[in-house]
Amino acid sequence: MSHVQCMIGPSILNSDLSNLHSESQNLLDSGADYLHLDVMDGTFVPNLTFGHPVVKCLRNKIPKAFFETHMMVQNPQQWIEPMADANVDQYTFHVEPVDNVPQVIRQIKEAGMKVGLAIKPKTPVDVIAEYIESADLVLIMTVEPGFGGQKFMQDMMPKVKWLRENYPTLNIEVDGGVGPNTIDECAKAGANWIVSGTAVINCPDRKQAISTLKSSVQKYLS
Ligand SMILES: O=C(CO)[C@H](O)[C@H](O)COP(=O)(O)O
Ligand SMILES: [Fe+2]
């Protein structure tokens, strides 16, 4: 499995959002490979975070890092252009509310961003199978989307395993309850993009937390 790269992307959802820039910079300085930005619209999920105006301001302060927006929104098509304008690198959206997934994929690519396909815990992985070849990444949610700090759902690992067996070069991301205690299961199943929120944010030594996640994934990659 050495043809995929290990990437650790902390979620800033549970950080001190009044200090979004310094929190994000601190995570990058602690070894984060990318930033996972959780965008919620209060409709697709019962919570509200921030949108493209905030992402754009953050991008002005942090011009170089890889930004992934995790779009937990009812109408992902609506935010493609504004997020591209905010210089987002990867637009990861949930397929559940979308009628025409290929069209959304095409529009994201035309806007110059990479494409991530996300599924909620109750969505079977075969729902996205026909779109995988045209995506850059698949995100397997390991909690119900909406809130940080929830318990990792181990029973999502068969989805990750299935993807890894069938798509050896695919970037597979896990998100929700992932931290030093749950990383081994994710890594063993074949995940190589790792989102970790509270486990990194609340750790007094964020560098150590990120490096633990990385070594686990690397152990299974080699
Ligand atoms: O998408 C998310 C929630 O919907 C977050 O990215 C995720 O929950 C990260 O936080 P934690 O690691 O604390 O679960
Ligand atoms: Fe997320």
From TrEMBL:
A divalent metal cation binds at H36, D38, H70, D175. Keywords: Carbohydrate metabolism, Cobalt, Isomerase, Manganese, Metal-binding, Zinc. Gene3D superfamilies: Aldolase class I. Binds 1 divalent metal cation per subunit. Pfam families: Ribul_P_3_epim. It is an enzyme of class 5 (isomerase). One of its GO terms (biological process) is carbohydrate metabolic process. It catalyses: D-ribulose 5-phosphate = D-xylulose 5-phosphate. InterPro entries: Aldolase_TIM, Ribul_P_3_epim, Ribul_P_3_epim-like, RibuloseP-bd_barrel. SUPFAM superfamilies: Ribulose-phoshate binding barrel. Substrate binds at S11, H70, G146, F147, G148, G149, G177, G197, T198. Its EC number is 5.1.3.1. The active site is at D38 (proton acceptor), D175 (proton donor). Pathway: Carbohydrate degradation; pentose phosphate pathway; D-xylulose 5-phosphate from D-ribulose 5-phosphate (non-oxidative stage): step 1/1. GO terms for molecular function: D-ribulose-phosphate 3-epimerase activity; metal ion binding. Its cofactor is a divalent metal cation; Zn(2+); Fe(2+); Mn(2+). NCBIfam families: PRK05581.1-4 (NF004076), rpe (TIGR01163). Belongs to the ribulose-phosphate 3-epimerase family. This is Ribulose-phosphate 3-epimerase. It comes from Diaphorina citri. The gene is LOC103516400.
